[in-house]
Design a protein that fits this description.
Helix content: 40-55%
Oligomer: single chain
Distance between the termini: 119 Å
CATH topology of the largest domain: Heat Shock Protein 90
Number of domains: 4
Largest sheet: 5 strands, antiparallel
Structural class: alpha/beta
CATH superfamily of the largest domain: Histidine kinase-like ATPase, C-terminal domain
Radius of gyration: 42 Å
CATH architecture of the largest domain: 2-Layer Sandwich
Bound molecules: adenosine-5'-diphosphate
Shape: elongated
Strand content: 15-25%
Length: 499
């Protein structure tokens, strides 16, 4: 039977059954016990043993007043709360079973912990979902703005082209002036379309990079040919310098696109003075600098000009605000950087494009395209369903001394081939309702090089065309140097000509 004082104590402390009560003398030795030791996960005590030997946790206690030790582990599965009830001669140590409560509490704690983890997981997922949603919204907004901007932007150069060509047709304007405006507007259109295509492709599948060796001098020549008339029309002196290595391995199309974007801006936002393009290799980077003496960009706007659709209204020239955004994307895709190095209203701006130097596979220098000889006395068949393009290609190939045949569709092409021997074929992909890929087998029977023109094809598409049997792919819009070079290269490697 539990002593009355212990019973009262347990009642006031609302403690239940399953307890072991140790009566201890003034020397703190156990003189008697009540209750079941086993239920508490301990052996029954021996009489006269010091209570702190029986319960080592009590070793530091002085037993001068009542105390309580909650949740003491008596064994692996048992937990109890220890109470000390001080009395004059005989005091009591009461061990109250708390195993069940402890287990439940532990379970709750585990639940709470797991709940917390789930809540955190859920929170993180919700955050990720929110970011994805925002990106989707942003991309949707960008696309909607792109379409709105494009319909507006394409309108201006198209109006000029249509208006001036009409005046030319009616002989109401000086030829040179009219053609200059048309050429400038067409260039502007080309620029816009190229940027838009890159934007679309980067959104859809990311940008793919293709490395090629190129001479900086020839790259500069091509860029100059594109931009010279624009600079001259504004009376701006366009200069290009390069130091050190001339042959570099870069993604030529992307690099050219960025430099044309930067130079186009430099000329556009410069009233008078010079625009320079410089190249050098610094610390394993190809560094292209575009320097102008133009309007400059104020400090607070410098951070935002690389954001899509950001334009500085006071620099009121027409533009879309995606040129720099696209250029920066392209630079990153090449593992490089594009930054505004300096800009002020007094001195103008310096943009810098850095591209890591690629170890070149061959040391040989590139030959001048004009040095390729194999076109002499050879003939080419050009197939395109647009007569203007056929005329343009014929004009571009003039310097190659090729005999040029043209065909407006597949039927005309095969008719010509049945009567005339040609040494190379250049075809557009879309020939009215027929795709050039469906004609490859018939063309290949002739055992001559088969070249394809394609509007800015992706690397994957290029591979596909090559697998279909085309020998080389030429990017549209066409560039006369590239066109001549690819044709002369293909002719020089042609099996039928080597035999
Ligand atoms: P845009 O088609 O409007 O030129 P960009 O993305 O190429 O679009 O340029 C964004 C804005 O940055 C331009 O609208 C212009 O205000 C400013 N900017 C770009 N380059 C220059 C520069 N060389 N000098 C002054 N301002 C520039």
């Amino acid at each position: 039977m539990l002593p009355e004082i212990v019973k009262d104590f347990l009642l006031t402390h609302k403690e239940g059954r399953n307890c072991l009560c140790l009566a201890i003398n003034q020397k703190h030795h156990i003189i008697q016990y009540f209750g079941s030791a086993h239920r508490l996960g301990v052996q029954p005590p021996q009489f006269e043993m010091p209570v702190s030997d029986y319960l080592p946790i009590l070793q530091t206690e002085t037993f001068e007043s009542n105390f309580e030790i909650p949740f003491y582990n008596t064994s692996e599965n048992s937990v109890c709360t220890i109470y000390f009830i001080k009395q004059k001669s005989i005091s009591f140590v009461v061990m109250v079973d708390k195993s069940e409560i402890f287990r439940v509490t532990q379970k709750y704690q585990q639940f709470a912990h797991e709940d917390n983890i789930s809540k955190n997981k859920f929170k993180r997922l919700a955050q990720e979902l929110e970011v994805a949603k925002q990106e989707l919204k942003k991309s949707d907004r960008e696309k909607a703005t792109l379409i709105a901007m494009l319909s507006h932007e394409l309108g201006t150069p198209l109006t000029s082209i249509l208006g001036y060509s009409e005046l030319l047709l009616r002989n109401e304007i000086n030829n040179k002036k009219g053609l200059e405006v048309i050429h400038k507007s067409a260039n502007h259109l080309k620029h816009l379309i190229e940027n838009t295509l890159i934007f679309g492709r980067s959104e859809a599948q990311g940008l793919q990079i293709q490395l090629n060796e190129i001479s900086i001098q020839s790259l500069f020549n091509e860029i100059k040919a594109t931009l010279l008339s624009m600079a001259q029309n504004k009376g701006i002196n366009l200069q290009m310098f390069h130091k050190g290595a001339d042959i570099v391995t870069i993604d030529v199309t992307r690099t050219k696109q960025i430099l044309i974007n930067l130079l186009n801006n430099a000329i556009k936002y410069t009233e008078s003075g010079t625009v320079e393009l410089k190249f050098s290799i610094i610390k394993n980077n190809c560094v292209f600098s575009v320097i102008d003496t133009g309007l400059g960009i104020s400090k607070d706007l410098q951070k935002t000009i690389f954001d899509p659709w950001q334009r500085i209204e006071e620099n009121s020239e027409s533009g879309s605000g995606i040129g720099l955004f696209i250029s920066q994307k392209l630079a990153k895709a090449m593992g490089g950087k594009l930054k505004l190095k300096y800009s002020s209203k007094e001195f103008g701006s310096i943009f810098q494009l850095l591209i890591p130097v690629q170890r070149s596979r061959t040391k040989q220098t590139l030959k001048d395209p004009k040095a390729y000889l194999p076109c002499n006395n050879k003939s080419i068949l050009v197939i395109d369903d647009d007569q203007d393009i056929l005329d343009l290609i014929a004009a571009m190939l003039q310097p190659c001394h090729l005999k040029i045949h043209t065909a407006i569709d597949a039927e005309a092409a095969f008719k010509l081939l049945s009567k005339t021997k040609v040494d190379i074929i250049l075809t557009d992909y879309n020939l009215g309702s027929v795709k050039a890929s469906s004609l490859v087998t018939r063309f290949k029977k002739l055992d001559i090089p088969l070249l394809l023109m394609s509007a800015l094809p992706s690397e994957t598409n290029k591979q596909k065309y090559i697998q279909q049997g085309f020998d080389a792919i030429i990017n549209k819009p066409l560039n006369s140097q590239n066109l001549q070079k690819t044709i002369t290269n293909s002719l020089s490697q042609s099996k039928s000509l080597l035999n």
